[in-house]
Amino acid sequence: MRKYILLFLLIFILALTGYVWFFYYKVYSVGDRFGTLKKFSMKGDVFKTYEGEIVVLDYFPSSGSSNKGNKFYFSVTDTKVAEQVREIIRTGNSKNVTVRYLQYRKSLPWRGENYNGKNENVGQYIVDKVDVQARGTNSQSNTGGLNSQGL
């Protein structure tokens, strides 16, 4: 009987660990957003986190609607990236920025706010890189060794 209880506990602990890893620590998607950096601040009662907002233009609006701006809410966990975003806001270069984000399925309070009701898809978005774009373009300033076809 003792053997079955230990086996059950082991399976339960492994299942719980797998669940936590899959939903809270495994990156669901990585992507980029381009738009105007609108707001960036540090907030929180217990866990102080950096929170920001970008207005992303809808380049392909549905028929009959105007070209409206969509908001993308994000958090920043790296203080170096947070300082870069603050500098962009301070210098007024927030017109054209590209941010790279990591999306997690569920949120943890020490990583940032939960914007499930505000963003297009559910999950927690953590920005880990920001680039200021040349005015009037949306190409990245640092292509990272890509050739002319983007490969």
Task: Write structural notes for this entry.
The protein is α+β, with helices and mostly antiparallel strands. It has a single domain (25-132), classed as OB fold (Dihydrolipoamide Acetyltransferase, E2P) (Beta Barrel). Helices cover 25% and strands 34% of the residues. It has helices at residues 2-25, 79-91; strands spanning 27-43, 49-57, 69-76, 97-104, 124-132. The protein has a 5-stranded antiparallel beta sheet with strand order 3-2-1-4-5.
Write a brief structural summary.
It is built from two helices and five strands; from the N terminus they run αβββαββ. The chain is an alpha+beta fold and 151 residues long. It is elongated, with a radius of gyration of 20 Å.
Looking at the overall shape, the CATH architecture is Beta Barrel
Series of H and E elements: HEEEHEE
CATH topology name: OB fold (Dihydrolipoamide Acetyltransferase, E2P)
Write out the strand line-up for the largest beta sheet, numbering strands in chain order.
Answer: 3-2-1-4-5
CATH class: Mainly Beta
Name the helicity range.
10-25%
Name the CATH superfamily classification.
Nucleic acid-binding proteins
State the domain count: 1
- Radius of gyration over alpha carbons? 20 Å
**Beta-strand percent range:** 25-35%
| Anisotropy-based shape | elongated
Total beta-strand segments: 5
Structural key phrases:
151 residues; OB fold (Dihydrolipoamide Acetyltransferase, E2P); 34% strand; disordered C terminus
